[in-house]
From TrEMBL, chain A:
Keywords: Oxidoreductase. One of its GO terms (biological process) is nucleoside metabolic process. The glycine cleavage system catalyzes the degradation of glycine. The P protein binds the alpha-amino group of glycine through its pyridoxal phosphate cofactor; CO(2) is released and the remaining methylamine moiety is then transferred to the lipoamide cofactor of the H protein. It catalyses: N(6)-[(R)-lipoyl]-L-lysyl-[glycine-cleavage complex H protein] + glycine + H(+) = N(6)-[(R)-S(8)-aminomethyldihydrolipoyl]-L-lysyl-[glycine-cleavage complex H protein] + CO2. This is Probable glycine dehydrogenase (decarboxylating) subunit 1. InterPro entries: GcvPA (IPR023010), GDC-P_N (IPR049315), GDC_P (IPR020581), PyrdxlP-dep_Trfase (IPR015424), PyrdxlP-dep_Trfase_major (IPR015421), PyrdxlP-dep_Trfase_small (IPR015422). The keyword Protein biosynthesis does not apply. The keyword Secreted does not apply. The glycine cleavage system is composed of four proteins: P, T, L and H. In this organism, the P 'protein' is a heterodimer of two subunits. Belongs to the GcvP family. N-terminal subunit subfamily.
TrEMBL record, chain B:
One of its GO terms (molecular function) is pyridoxal phosphate binding. CDD domains: GDC-P. Gene3D superfamilies: 6.20.440.10, Aspartate Aminotransferase, domain 1, Type I PLP-dependent aspartate aminotransferase-like (Major domain). HAMAP family: GcvPB. The glycine cleavage system is composed of four proteins: P, T, L and H. In this organism, the P 'protein' is a heterodimer of two subunits. It is an enzyme of class 1 (oxidoreductase). Residues 352-455 form the Glycine dehydrogenase C-terminal domain. Belongs to the GcvP family. C-terminal subunit subfamily. Coiled coil: none annotated. This is Probable glycine dehydrogenase (decarboxylating) subunit 2. One of its GO terms (biological process) is glycine decarboxylation via glycine cleavage system.
Length: 448, 484
């Protein structure tokens, strides 16, 4: 068969069969018993040529309403941010994207150094000592933080704020079933973790307290008040954090967090229907040898030249097997590279400027809603998301917005029965004043 | 003499920028007015300050210090380093795929849901399973997801004593590690001299506490477990489930389906068999397929096709829960789907035939120069042992390093653990005979060097940007970030 990905010619094939000493390729499969042999061909769609397939898939993609065409006020963990053009140019260099894990350091210095730089940037943003080379996403990173806390403290209770992303919470609960951890959800009060409720659940059995900063409602959790409660009984303090927000907010590390995780999607990674994004995982140095996933370290070669290697591998599955700190193998390396390039392009000044713009645009939008008589549900300080109560179901309102070629916010009633008709609105630096005004106008008579 | 590439932080100079943000078009709120002082960062994160060209040059320099499939042959066993088609990259970047939000109303993402649904249908046929979830982000994540489903299945039967997962001694490290994360104990089953699971040993370890047996077939030695139906019978008779690690599916496309071999759960590595690029270590995608009796336990949501189009089904009371925010690594799934549609049924069949032809050809030609521990037809990969060379003072690690001088990525080494001085070679179907021959010649030359001038091999690599690195100090005194 002729195919552009398959270079063997009939002549090659014959020569090779001869070398092997068989008559046909089929003979090479003689070890597969007839009883399990698949006969014939798969009943799947026939192959399409390159231009035909391009055309078909372009049409399929066009069935979706993309957020570059439709201004979107959806956030809830995935954001429409400025992606410096250069990001895609870098990650399109196939020396990066067609490589595998840098197991052979001498020919993988590029990837290794890029990851080392990524680790450094994550440490800078979070105020932590050590960051790994990436996790699948923010949700699984959070789940692994809970597992790490339990393993480290030898305790089994996880206190999880209800103001943490509902899907992240679901993932934590699924992972918790493995080692049999008990997950207790802590209610929120005025949009942030209820300190009294948390205090009431704290005891010697608590492995960790988990909060999000800014939290799912966009509110800035009072880490300063949370930290002493979390640490009162030798449990871990785990903070999930939007790394862009940390361009302006005091990093969790400064408030004494033991583990900081999150998703680097706001840095250079397109929404892509929810993945692949890029989980990050950062810890205080005491946990360095227990961190999940790959770590890159600096060293020297035989001639004293600086170089980079995968290190502390004794934690990992390929060495420790069932005793490994995690089962993660492939991670999100290429997206960590994308995030590195975006963080580099934004740099010291740009990260702050972009984060500040998010605050400013979101606050402008919130004020506009207040001025139009809307009930903004939570009144504490917030980053780029806030909650507005409507007088009808969010899904219905969003349908109407769609007719105006806009994508409305997230329907909180899906996860919080007490927040029926409440919309979580995200306003990033990419939403213009015009778009914000239009949203407020279109929602005009929907205030509760 | 190679020049080091400075760290991006070392290239930084205050006053340079590499971004372009729109001007603020709303009244400028003072952050200090809306955020309490103690929550306002006092010291800016020390990120680089560089121009766009600085960035491009930096990463271009780094890329030149990296070897990918596009740079040269990459016969890394178990990883299926085949060509990554470029059309995949373009399709994944269509705005309608790259820039859609996972929480948009379903009617605005019908194209995405259709693609996911159709990919699931294709994977069901390819694996012979009854249902597929695309949620897991990679192979290991798929393993854990599958094991959690097996656990839920047993528990739903009131069967709480199935605490053990059996893995062969040839298993990949993620298998036992995933078993642990899923709350199981791992039991190892031995391999025979022939490199297959020892049925007597399997009978010995299997029992009422068996939750599952995890297998790759062909196994990590590249050999097809011919007794698979008997193994399935042993495990099923004891009430356990059979788990298929699909990392090696490239060996059996259109030849044998996990579902027909008696497997109950399977994960695939779309970044291997189905050309999602490896990305320097990820992102991957690890869909899981199951037989009907495990379907109720699939993580939620599932993608379904209804009268009014495609939708996400959250109403699944028996689901193990969520294994990932949103719906999986969609961008990788788009690439895999594009690939499957580029190949079609006859193309996928040819993939396996050529992958197996290439591996057997290399194995036969190299068998004269290196020890071949299992002398029978291999599937898509095979293992050699560097025992003979070790006696000459040349270790497999040295051989691997010497290959770097020829411009090749070495095979997987020291895995599987049961083969002394192991080299695991997987050529894949996208490599030409010329490439295979050139690599074989290099291997032959290295075998000769081991005999005649071993120091050339022992001191390799000679041509790379760095020489062998001090991994011991790296682990003993870890430097894991840049500090001024
Ligand atoms: C046999 C086998 N199983 C499982 C895995 C794990 O897959 P992933 O890296 O996608 O988690 C690998 C990949 O290295 C493998 O080779």
């Amino acid at each position: 068969m002729l195919h552009r990905y398959l270079p063997m010619t009939e002549e090659d094939k014959q020569q090779m069969l001869e070398t092997i000493g068989v008559q046909s390729i089929d003979e090479l499969f003689s070890d597969i018993p007839e009883s399990v042999r698949f006969q014939g061909e798969y009943n799947i769609k026939q192959a399409k040529s390159e231009p035909e397939l391009m055309k078909e898939l372009m049409a399929l993609a066009a069935k979706n309403a993309d957020i570059k065409t439709y201004p979107s006020f959806l956030g809830a963990g995935v954001y429409d941010h400025y992606i410096p053009t250069i990001v895609d140019h870098v990650i399109s260099r196939s020396e990066f994207y067609t490589a595998y894990t840098p197991y052979q350091p001498e020919i993988s210095q590029g990837e290794l150094q890029a990851i080392f730089e990524f680790q450094t940037m994550i440490c800078e943003l979070t105020g932590m000592d050590v960051a790994n080379s990436s996790m699948y996403d923010g949700g699984t990173a959070l789940a692994e933080a809970a597992l790490l806390s339990a393993a480290h403290t030898k305790k089994k209770k996880v206190l999880l704020s209800k103001a943490v992303h509902p899907e992240y919470r679901d993932v934590v609960k699924t992972y918790a079933k493995g080692p049999g951890l008990e997950v207790i959800e802590i209610p929120y009060k005025n949009g942030v973790t209820d300190l009294d409720a948390l205090q009431a659940e704290m005891n010697e059995d608590v492995a960790c307290v988990i909060v999000q900063y800014p939290n799912f409602f966009g509110q800035i959790e009072p880490l300063k008040e949370l930290e002493p409660i979390a640490h009162a009984h030798k449990g871990m303090f785990v903070v999930a954090s939007n790394p862009l927000a940390l361009g302006v907010l005091t990093p969790p590390g400064q408030f004494g967090a033991d583990i900081v995780v999150g998703d680097a999607q706001p840095f250079g990674i397109p929404a892509q229907f929810g993945g692949p994004h890029c989980g990050y995982f950062a810890v205080k140095s005491a946990l360095m040898r227990k961190i999940p996933g790959r770590l890159v370290g600096q060293t020297t070669d035989e001639e004293g030249r600086r170089g980079f290697v995968l290190t502390l591998q004794a934690r990992e599955q390929h060495i420790r097997r069932d005793k490994a700190t995690s089962n993660i193998c492939s991670n999100q390396a290429l997206n960590a590279l994308a995030a590195s390039v975006a963080m580099t392009a934004l740099g010291k000044k740009g990260v702050k400027e972009m984060a500040t713009m998010n605050i400013q645009k979101a606050h402008y939008a919130k004020e506009a809603f207040v001025n139009h008589g809307f009930d903004v549900v939570f009144t504490g300080p917030f980053f780029n998301e806030f909650v507005v109560r409507l007088n009808k179901p969010v899904a219905e309102v969003n349908k109407k917005l769609l007719e105006k070629s806009m994508i409305g916010g997230y329907d909180l009633g899906r996860d919080y029965p007490e927040l029926q008709n409440c919309m979580l609105i995200a306003v990033t630096e990419l939403r213009t004043k015009e778009e914000i005004d239009m949203l407020v106008k279109e929602l005009g008579d929907c205030h509760a | 003499m190679h020049k080091d590439q400075p760290l991006i932080f070392e290239l930084s100079k205050p006053g340079r920028i590499g971004y372009s943000l729109p001007a603020l078009d709303v009244p400028a709120v003072d952050v200090a007015q809306v955020i309490p002082t103690e929550y306002i960062r006092q010291e800016a994160p020390d990120l680089p300050e560089v121009s766009e060209l600085d960035i491009m040059r930096h990463y271009t320099a780094l890329s030149k210090r990296n070897h990918g499939v596009d740079s040269g042959f990459y016969p890394l066993g178990s990883c299926t380093m085949k060509y990554n088609p470029k059309i995949n990259e373009n399709v994944a970047r269509f705005a309608g795929f790259a820039h859609i939000h996972p929480l948009q109303p379903e009617e605005t993402v019908q194209g995405a849901l259709e693609l996911m649904y159709d990919l699931q249908e294709h994977l069901k046929e390819i694996t012979g399973m009854d249902a597929v979830t695309l949620q897991p982000a990679a192979g290991a994540h798929g393993e854990w997801t599958g094991l959690m489903m097996i656990r839920a299945y047993h528990e739903a039967n009131g069967d709480y004593n199935r605490t053990k997962v059996i893995v062969p001694d040839t298993a990949h490290g993620t298998n036992p590690a995933s078993a642990t994360v899923a709350g199981f104990e791992t039991v190892t089953v031995k391999s025979t001299e022939e490199g297959l699971v020892d049925l007597d040993d399997l009978r010995r370890v299997v029992g009422p506490d068996t939750a599952a047996l995890m297998l790759t077939n062909p196994n990590t030695l590249g050999l097809f477990e011919e007794n698979i139906l008997e193994m399935a019978e042993i495990v099923h008779a004891a009430g356990g489930k059979l788990y298929y690690d699909g990392a090696n599916l490239n060996a059996v496309l259109s030849k044998a389906r996990p579902g027909d071999m008696g497997f109950d759960v399977v994960h695939l590595n779309l970044h291997k068999t189905f050309t999602g690029p490896h990305g320097g270590g990820g992102p991957g995608s690890g869909p899981v397929g199951v037989k009907a009796d495990l379907t109720p336990f699939l993580p939620k949501p599932t993608v379904e096709k209804g009268e009014n189009g495609y939708y996400l089904d959250y109403d699944r009371p028996k689901a193990i829960g969520r294994v990932k925010p949103f719906y999986g690594n969609f961008g990788i799934n788009v690439r895999a789907y594009t690939y499957i549609r580029s190949m079609g049924p006859d193309g996928l069949k040819a993939v396996t035939e050529y992958a197996v032809l290439n591996a057997n050809y290399m194995m036969r030609r190299l068998a004269e120069y290196y020890d071949l521990p299992y002398n029978r037809h291999c599937k898509h990969e095979f293992v050699l042992s560097g025992k003979r060379q070790k006696k000459l003072g040349v270790r497999t690690l040295d051989i691997a390093k010497r290959l770097l001088d020829f411009g090749y990525h070495p095979p997987t080494i020291y895995f599987p653990l049961i083969v002394e001085e192991c080299m695991m070679i997987e050529p894949t179907e996208t490599e030409s005979k010329e490439t295979l021959d050139a690599f074989i010649d290099a291997m032959i030359q290295i075998a000769k060097e081991a005999e005649e001038t071993p120091e050339i091999v022992q001191e390799a690599p000679h041509t790379t940007v760095v020489k062998r690195l001090d991994e011991t100090t790296a682990a003993r005194k870890p430097i894991l970030r840049y500090q001024k």
